[in-house]
Amino acid sequence: MPESRDPSLSLKHFLPYRLVSLAQNVSEKFAEVYQSEFNLTTPEWRILVHLAEQDDSGNGQSDVRDPKEEINTSAGSAGISAKALTVLASMDKSTVSRAVKLMLDKGYLVKQLDKNDKRASVLALTQQGKHLYQTIAPKALDWEADLLDVLSASQYRDLMRIIDKLDLRLS
Predict the structure, then answer these.
(1) Beta carbons of 51 and 125 less than 8 angstroms apart
(2) How confident is the model at residue 1, as a pLDDT?
(3) Whose CB among 25, 54, 115, 167 lies 3.0–4.6 Å from 77's, allowing a Cys bridge?
């Protein structure tokens, strides 16, 4: 908590505003990585990443699992339901639905019956979708490294700890 609290609201010192502003700026700048070269929308990118992570976790390649993934992602089924994606990707149902349709049409996703619940379906990446992710991921990591090169390793660790602490506080 800051040492002295000014009773008036100043946006440049109001954390919610600063975080939203930073997140929006980062999102807009980062979108250039996947929009121009790969013609993906932000919702498509987010779905692509979540499905790739789900795919990796099934192969033992993911070392950290997001607690949000404890949502019914149909453990034992290859894929994630569109409903679970809305929570995982923090997007509304209609946004996910539109993005899923685009990705199905582009050949990046396949829709399958849920092995555990034959009334439901799950989404998974096709080989084309997996290849797309494997092509974009290194570019995303390079972009992130370029952004973060203004921070020392210690500052980066502190930033991650602070974000985790605030995120936990809001959970």
Answers:
(1) yes
(2) 63
(3) 115
